């Protein structure tokens, strides 16, 4: 199996996740969606035509809906006009029998969202099966994916209770998510502190300034937090946030 990288990437991706895989002599086009899209049938036809033009081989298209809703858009599985008919497979994961998924470790994350009269008991079964996986990295990755998808159905408390954090720590995906979460937390903390100090010093802030401050990176927020101690008025804040000031501060020093 080979992941295809084609000029289809110039098309803006409107799916939650889209993948083009070459499996043997055919191409497997998979899209994951959490919500319905009335333009999905036309987009699937568009993908099919461009993939076929490039590869001239059979193409299987599957749209997998992850989150249960009653929207009729999730029932769409074809594009049809008076002269054209193109169909694809639409899978609503919550309607699928979980038996096959429970017997294949790589499919366990999808079983989290599959049909079940007792979802919490299903999650417990999945957690037990994950713990039985021998390879630690595979176990960690599958637990992480199950946790991520599980957020569409279960509460954070139940997920944390059954899919233990220590199992996921070896997963590079979990580590990346954790690092991103820490960075976002630090950035939000710096932002809240800066805005609180500014409001205490100058009162209510203009929306335009708040918007500019929220757009600062973590590094710039830290610098802003130090600089605001010297601000005497909102004009000083405006000057510090101006593009010219940012450019001047970031310019390399002449050491010649």
Task: Please tell me about this protein's structure.
Strand 3 (26-33), helix 1 and strand 4 form a beta-alpha-beta unit. Helices cover 50% and strands 13% of the residues. It has helices at 40-55, 99-102, 108-111, 119-131, 136-150, 156-162, 165-168, 172-202, 207-214, 218-227, 234-241, 243-250, and strands at residues 2-3, 17-23, 26-33, 59-65, 78-80, 85-87, 89-92. By secondary structure, it is an alpha/beta fold.
Main β-sheet description: 5 strands, mixed
| Tally of contiguous helical segments | 12
Q: Can you tell me the overall shape?
A: extended
What spatial order of strands do you see in the largest sheet?
A: 1-2-3-4-7
Q: What percent of residues are in strands?
A: 5-15%
- Name the helicity range: 40-55%
| Low-pLDDT regions | 247-256
End-to-end separation? 56 Å
Using only C-alpha atoms, the radius of gyration works out to 25 Å
Number of strands: 7
Structural class: alpha/beta
Secondary-structure element sequence? Answer: EEEHEEEEHHHHHHHHHHH
Query: How confident overall, as mean pLDDT?
Result: 85
